[in-house]
Amino acid sequence: MNLSNCSIPIIGFAAYSGTGKTTLLEALLPRLVDSGVRVAMIKHAHHNFDVDIPGKDSYRLRKAGASQMLISSRYRNALMTETPDDDEALRQLIQKVNQNQADLIVVEGFKHESFPKIELNRATINKPFLYPTDENIIAIACDSFPDTSLPILDINNIESVLAFVLKQMESHQAQTATCDSLSPTMLSVKRGREKILAALESPKQTHVVDLDVLTNHVLASPIIAPVNVPSSTNSAMDGYAIRSDDLETGTYVKVGDVFAGSRFEHPLQKGQCVRIMTGAPVPEHADTVIMREQASDVNGAVQFDTSKGKIRAGQNVRQAGEDLRKGSQVFPAGTRINAPVLGMIASLGFDRVNVYTNVTVALFSTGDEVQAPGTPPKQNCIYDTNRFSLKGLLQKLGCDVLDFGIIEDNEAALSDTLKQAIASADVIISSGGVSVGDADYIKTVLTALGDINFWRVNMRPGRPLAFGKLGNTPFFGLPGNPVAVMVTYLQFVEPAIRKLQGEEGWQPQRIVAITQERIRSRVGRTEYTRGSYNINANGQLEVRSTGSQGSGILRSMHEANCLIEVSPDVECAEVGDNVTIIPLASRI
Ligand code: AMP
Ligand code: MG
Fold this sequence. Notes:
The protein has twelve helices and 37 strands. Strand 33 and strand 34 form a beta hairpin. The protein folds into five domains: 10-176, Rossmann fold, CATH 3.40.50.300; 206-228 and 323-356, Molybdopterin biosynthesis moea protein, domain 2; 234-318, Beta Complex (Molybdopterin biosynthesis moeA protein, domain 3); 360-501, Molybdenum Cofactor Biosythetic Enzyme, Chain A (3-Layer(aba) Sandwich); 511-583, Beta-clip. It starts with 9 loop residues before the first strand and ends in a 5-residue tail after the last strand. Helix 8 (386-396) packs parallel to helix 11 (482-501) and helix 9 (411-424) runs parallel beside helix 10. The strands form ten sheets. Strands 9-27-29-30-26-22-25 form a seven-stranded mixed beta sheet, with helices on both faces. It has a six-stranded parallel beta sheet with strand order 2-5-1-6-7-8, sandwiched between helices. By secondary structure, it is an alpha/beta fold. The radius of gyration is 34 Å and the shape is elongated. Bound molecules: adenosine monophosphate and magnesium ion (MG). Residues 365, 367, 369-370, 382, 384-387, 431-433, 435, 438, 479-482 line the site of adenosine monophosphate. This is Molybdopterin molybdenumtransferase. GO terms for molecular function: GTP binding; metal ion binding; molybdopterin molybdotransferase activity. Its EC number is 2.10.1.1. It holds the Pfam family MoeA_C. It comes from Enterovibrio nigricans DSM 22720.
């Protein structure tokens, strides 16, 4: 059913006039663009249509005899071809579409041609269905319940139509794997990340580690409090403990001194007080502590100066278990251990806990122009940046890194390295060599060793990204440009590694700030400008870019404290607009 001269998927929409074909397409196209799909449309018009304007130069020249008129300007061009003798067949028209600049061809009309179509039908139009007579119908968008095994979509729910079209595109991709690696679909950042996360499993291997080396591990078992923290009700102040049913007594007899680590063994009677230090357990029946500064103690006769502060029953006392209650779950499995978590685990008395085993990452750079730092500079070469920025990022996440260095630009070297990496690491990351125009041997080797997709992600910086599995080992082929490497890592690799480490439901922090600069982007693309945010004199969060945004300018990343994310549905952000920022402080 596929038209053989088309390397990208093609879908038609077939309906009787009046069904609302164009209206539906007008709603569908922006949703496709949002999903990162570049759409080419082919539309049949019945009349002697003309897109040119009578009197314009192009019109006059065409009328003067140009059988093909190609008019071009900064923003678009159009080829007008005179076809006086015959309608062109769909297959000829498809050849005129630049298939390298589109991911999907949508066709309106051409109902007698054989290609996959979605039929549109509305009960109110009162027309028969086309699917019984047109075997090219692959789904029906309608508002009734025709008796068919074809997929039925809700014509009034654009999401249902969108989901079907995207699924069709994916299965086209799966069927044409080789062709696909040359012209893969443009993916949105969100869909790319979803695909990656869906392909990864949570870890199973666990082991027990000492507190000393626990930071950045992820708990494999929940932490249940074996004791109360604090273990006993104790004083929050240096002062005097009394009973709250005994606030009116004027002068109290001091019956003891209680220091942290000791206790007063007798129940406290009315008229009595004890001097007590911060953290010391309050005696039985005592439940209120008055701070030292309010007390006068004359040979054990103690009075309190209430002009310095009223005494409230229960004040300045910490209840046993008020921080962590015995038997309660303090941390679920999947918690990453940072300083407060570490401190709390220690406060419960644990010296060892069960964690997921560290993720080992094999890392290498590709490219004949890339040379190792520490070697004398060679002509036309650049020092390897990416291996080190990536190592820094991975170590920050607590990964063990296996550094495979710079791989020579040849098939055998790459293949050997990958085989070693598969045998020794949980994840493999490379940089360089995955963009269009890069040496094909990388793709050949990767394809021979596993199941790798070469994506173009609709983002900037970034775009080329290879992801898949070599055997069971996830592989990320990141772009070559140093900024693109870091931004792609933050969007795709970090969430993936956190999942492989067992961290549950991690999301980067996102906040809103007012942009002080116009931020250029494009509909369909997610733009990540390196930014610096601060709080202005009015207490508002504002952000500006860090200057030159070339994807080779790593300084832009160093000077940034956030990424400014302009989402695919926005053309550009103007000065004063709210923009989403993703703080980087704890991540790079
Ligand atoms: P590629 O994706 O291999 O075409 O690389 C894109 C750009 O990134 C080229 O200018 C490369 O020279 C540069 N590049 C590739 N790998 C590295 C690396 N490891 N360190 C610094 N720059 C790199
Ligand atoms: Mg290269």
